[in-house]
Structure formats: C-alpha cells, structure tokens
Amino acid sequence: MPIPERGRPWPDIAAEMETARARDLDWRHGRHGAYVWYASDELEHVLREAFGMFFVENGLGIRAFPSLARMEADVLESVADLLGGGPGTPGIFTSGGTESIFLAAYAMREWARATRPAIECPAILAPRSAHPALDKAAHYLGLRVRRIPVGPDYRADPAAIRAALDADTIGLYASAPAYSLGVIDPIEELAAVARDHGLWLHVDACVGGILGPFVRELGYPVPPFAFELDGVTSVSADLHKSGFAAKPASTLLFRSEAHREFARYTFDDWPSGTYTSLTFTGTRPGGAIAAAWAAFQFLGREGYRQLAAASMRARAAIESGLRARIPGLTIHGQPPLYAFAWAVPGVSMGRVAAAMAREGWVAGRTTAPDGIHVMATPIHEPFAAEYAETAARAVETARSAPATDTARATYT
Ligand SMILES: Cc1ncc(COP(=O)(O)O)c(C=O)c1O
Asked: Which one of 14, 143, 150, 208 is least enclosed by Cβ atoms within 10 Å?
C-alpha cells in the first residue's frame, strides 16, 4: 500500500499492530520449535533498554562511536574465551548465522586463492546435515559444496570425507550441533583431516557456541568443538540464539589475525577514498552490539549456567514426557545439547506435525530421517507436559489421518 498521506497518532498505530499480531506464533507459551530464544522478562527488559540506548548509533561508524567499538571488542573477546581461544583470537560481530557462515566461506575462498591459486573450482566438503546457509554462501561466492552422507549415528563421517577429498577441496565444514537432529559432528577427527591436508575447517556452532560450553560446565558430556582443537580455523557462534541476546547478532572467530584478514573487503575506486570492511553489511545496528554486551554483563557466567541448566531440564522433561505417553518413540542419534528430533516408527511425522499445528503448536520437521524437531529453551520448561500431551494426541490422530494431511517440512 502507498504511505498514507497524513500520519496518525502512535496509540492508534500500536493498537493496530497489537491486533495484527494476534494470530502470530504463541512463543510465550512455548508453542514454537524455532525462531525464538527467550530467557526471561528481566533479560528482555535489559535488552530493550540497551538496544534503545544505542538505537540511533551506527555500527558502521565504529570510529565515531568508541563506545560501540569497545563493547564489540569485549563481546568478541568473551566469545573467544568461551570457545577455547584467547586474546589473540580475533572475531567479527555479524548480523546472524547466515552472515557469519557467508564470511567464513568468503575468507576460506580468499585464503585458498592466495595460498593455492591453481585451484579453479574450489569446493567445500560438508556432511549432508550442514545448514543451508553454507550452500547459500557458496551460491553467492561461486564455490561448490559437496555434501557427503552422514554415518549411521547421523554425524559427519570422517572416513567418507577423507575419501572424498580431491585436488579442488579447499576446506571442510562441521556443525556443533547440526540444526536438524542436534548431533555434534566428530570435530576432533575432522580437525585431524584438515591438519593432514592443509585445509580450512569451519565449525558452525551457531546453535551451540554460546550455551554449549556452559552445558559442559554443568557436567554433561559435550565434546570440545572449537579452538581447543588444533585444525579448527574458524567458528561461528550466534549471540541471538543460545546467547539469548537481541537480533541481529552473531560472531565469527578465527584462529589468527591473518585468517581474519581474508574476510576483509577493500575498495577505493570511488570519490570518497578507501572503503574497507570485515562485514557483509554496511550500516549495522548499534543496538544489537549494545544489547549483546549488556546480556553478557547482566547474566554473567552464572546466569548462562542457569540458562544452560534450564534448557537441559526442558529437554529432559519433553523427552521423558514423550516417552511416557508414546510407546516406541525414538530419538534420532545422540544429541548432547538442547536440540533433538523424535519420531515414532511407522507413523508419518508430517501428519503428526499437521495435527499439532491444528492445536497451535509449530513443530519443526526433519525429513532424513522423518521426525519432529525440538529446540528446548528455558521458556519450554513449564510447558513440557502440555507439549508431550499434544504430541501424543497428534500421534494417535496421525495413525488414522488420511495420507494427504501432512505438514510439509519447510523452514522459512
Ligand atoms: C546450525 C545453524 N547454522 C546457521 C543458522 C543460520 O542462522 P541465522 O538464521 O541466524 O542466519 C542456523 C539457523 O537456525 C542454524 O541452526
């Protein structure tokens, strides 16, 4: 519609917006399988205040806003510390997992151009479970992604990846955890392949990067997946997912300053001198940097441990609730964090998802294998029993539903 000729008062506008959102996903009651990471009303307040304080400032002009420069550097150092790096582990504050992965693929390509210029069709080897952001990046960058079948545990298969290497391979890709089934790839073994063959290894820890280390601190068996492993070159970790910060915010960390430099874009053939940038985006919301910094300060390590504990309790409650109500239920693989997928052999999970959707639950889908995806966060904990009851009813409905009644697996 055209912009209205005359403006109208904010209360009117706000009322219309409130009405418009009435049919949106009811995430406050844990009805979501994706999209929202919510810790608490207290943290929401802090994030809104911090974002609001720096609402107008532009992260592109980091020289003009030393406050943003400092907060950005602090956040990147904190993430480096979480991920087994140190003060010499440089990073980039980005707008999300997709931008972090794009920049990792770009840096990998530029590094390969500089170090192995003879390669004409550079390729990245990834397990089939890799997030589509990798292929999106490769599509834009003129790279090839070769997806290699996963092993019987649904994790990357290092032997198959080793066997698939060829003269065009410039790097490897692994997830911690993979979105669909929540499994963590055998990154230690993939790091060895990368070391042996002089390849760049990117770890997509967009989901596990911030909270995973705290789950480990609580005593759960979470394998090392980042810079503790010699052979890992870059790691992406989203602040707006398990960092519970405001969108849009993610980080991309590099083994060394020299590796990060490959993510730089510089141009000076225009009338305003040298333009140089480490991000894909130009203008960046100062609020997102401020909110991420404030989240770290407000929660502290103690707060993140509590969120990790609540997320793992939510996962356990959902899983035990499902098992108690649905005989024969399977969890795919051995997901060590708060993401997992479940299925009932012989039952179409697309039909289950459709039946859950009719009761107001947005259930994520997996297709290989067929399943329903769960990303447990603290807000899911009090609704775990309701989830399991709805799911159990949906399984019964699905057993008798017509074959056409299927929720397609889409993630948009
Ligand atoms: C493992 C993984 N990597 C990357 C992404 C992309 O992140 P974003 O949606 O923030 O761009 C996601 C999103 O869910 C993800 O789960």
From this structure: 14
**Which H or E element spans position 49?**
helix 41-53
Q: Where are the beta strands (DSSP E) in 2-104?
A: 91-94
Which atom in ligand 1 lies closest to the alpha carbon of residue 248?
A: 10
In angstroms, the CA 407 to CA 357 distance is: 8
Closest residue by CA, ligand 1 atom 14:
179
Closest ligand 1 atom to residue 175 Cα is: 1
Domains and CATH numbers, the chain: 24-42+300-400 (3.90.1150.10), 46-296 (3.40.640.10)
pLDDT given at position 405: 64
Is the Cβ–Cβ distance between 357 and 309 less than 8 Å?
Answer: no
**Alpha helix positions (H), 28-156:** 41-53, 66-82, 97-115, 133-141
Tokens in use for 16? 């219309």
Cis peptide before 158 (omega within 30 of 0): no
Residue nearest to atom 16 of ligand 1 (CA): 179
Pairing of strands 123-127, 169-175: parallel
Distance from residue 2's CA to the centre of ligand 1 (Å): 34
Q: Residue-wise over 303-314: b if at least 16 C-beta within 10 A, else e? A: bbbbbbbbbbbb
Atom of ligand 1 nearest to the CA of 97: 7
Altogether, the residues listed in the chain come to a count of 412
| Residue 325 Cα to ligand 1 middle (Å) | 31
Query: Average pLDDT of each block of 10 consecutive residues along the chain (412 residues)?
Result: 97 98 90 90 98 96 94 98 96 98 98 97 98 98 98 98 98 98 98 98 98 98 98 98 98 98 98 96 97 98 98 98 97 98 97 95 94 96 96 96 66 58
Is the C-beta atom of 179 inside 6 A of ligand 1? yes
Which tokens sit at 21? 């959102």
Structure-token pair, residue 204: 């997509």
Atom of ligand 1 nearest to the CA of 247: 10
